[in-house]
């Protein structure tokens, strides 16, 4: 199954960006910029973008951490990363890593923020639980995991297009995750804040592992 999904994303990589921009009504990438701005990243920080796909988030994260910071984009699809490489060749502080989100090849507690855009709902089986445990492991204490996901669209045409795509990953489970991912995330994080985005097609969930520590850390900076 994992081999099939990797092949699916390798093929899908060539038109992935067009699908996401159509559903989210975000051809200019403004929503990903909002996701980056929702993070407390500062100059010199280190950020991880999980399931980075074609690397659409990486430019925005680079702007947050500056030239002295580092941004890592991780994905299990070689095809997606090839597309991402085209976008990030000019960025010296970006590293693309081919890896499974459930088994991250990074040391513990090294990232100031972890982001994941339009991918969390696609994880199948226990991969979702393993990924969340890995996110908590690699995050610095009190630092956030930020998830941007589709909201179920009101437009019937866009909803049908989304359902067709979800058929490849188990329709019922994927739709349930889109509806209840806040509940799923709250099993692992002490606080999950939801931010509704313009157009009503996407949302951001900001997840904190240690709320008291995170407030204190931000106050002391």
Describe the structure.
43% of the residues lie in helices and 19% in strands. It has 221 residues and is α/β, with parallel strands linked by helices. It has a single domain, classed as Rossmann fold (3-Layer(aba) Sandwich), CATH 3.40.50. A seven-stranded mixed beta sheet has the order 3-2-1-4-5-7-6, sandwiched between helices. Helix 6 links the parallel strand 4 (113-117) and strand 5. 38% of the residues are buried.
Strand order in space, largest sheet: 3-2-1-4-5-7-6
General form = globular
Uncertain segments are 213-221
End-to-end separation: 46 Å
CATH fold call: Rossmann fold
**Secondary structure: helix percent:** 40-55%
Name the CATH superfamily classification.
Vaccinia Virus protein VP39
**Class, according to the CATH hierarchy?**
Alpha Beta
Mean pLDDT: 80
How many domain modules? 1
What is the N-to-C succession of helices and strands?
HHHEHEHEEHEHHEEH
Proportion of residues in extended strands: 15-25%
CATH architecture: 3-Layer(aba) Sandwich
The strand count comes to 7
Helix count, DSSP H or I runs of 4 or more residues: 9
Task: Indicate the topology.
Layout: H1 2-12, H2 16-24, H3 30-38, E1 46-50, H4 58-65, E2 70-75, H5 78-88, E3 94-98, E4 113-117, H6 127-138, E5 144-150, H7 156-166, H8 171-185, E6 191-196, E7 202-208, H9 211-220
Quick recap of the structure?
This protein has nine helices and seven strands; from the N terminus they run H-H-H-E-H-E-H-E-E-H-E-H-H-E-E-H.
């Amino acid at each position: 199954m994992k081999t099939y999904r990797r092949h699916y994303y390798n093929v899908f990589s060539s038109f992935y960006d067009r699908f996401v921009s159509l559903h989210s009504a975000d051809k200019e990438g403004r929503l990903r910029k909002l996701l980056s701005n929702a993070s407390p990243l500062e100059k010199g920080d280190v950020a991880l973008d999980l399931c980075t796909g074609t690397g659409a988030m990486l430019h925005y994260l680079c702007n947050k951490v500056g030239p002295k910071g580092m941004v890592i984009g991780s994905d299990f699809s070689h095809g997606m990363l090839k597309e991402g490489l085209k976008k990030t060749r000019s960025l010296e502080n970006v590293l693309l890593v081919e890896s499974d989100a459930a088994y991250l090849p990074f040391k513990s507690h090294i990232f100031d923020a972890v982001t994941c855009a339009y991918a969390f709902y696609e994880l199948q089986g226990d991969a979702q639980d393993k990924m969340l445990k890995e996110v908590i492991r690699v995050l610095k204490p009190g630092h956030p995991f930020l998830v941007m996901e589709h909201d179920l669209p009101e437009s019937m045409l866009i909803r049908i297009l989304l359902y067709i795509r979800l058929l490849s990953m188990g329709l019922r489970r994927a739709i349930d995750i889109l509806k209840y991912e806040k509940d799923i995330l709250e099993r692992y994080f002490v606080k999950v804040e939801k931010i509704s985005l313009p157009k009503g097609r996407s949302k951001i969930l900001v997840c904190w592992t240690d709320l008291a520590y995170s407030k204190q850390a931000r106050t002391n900076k």
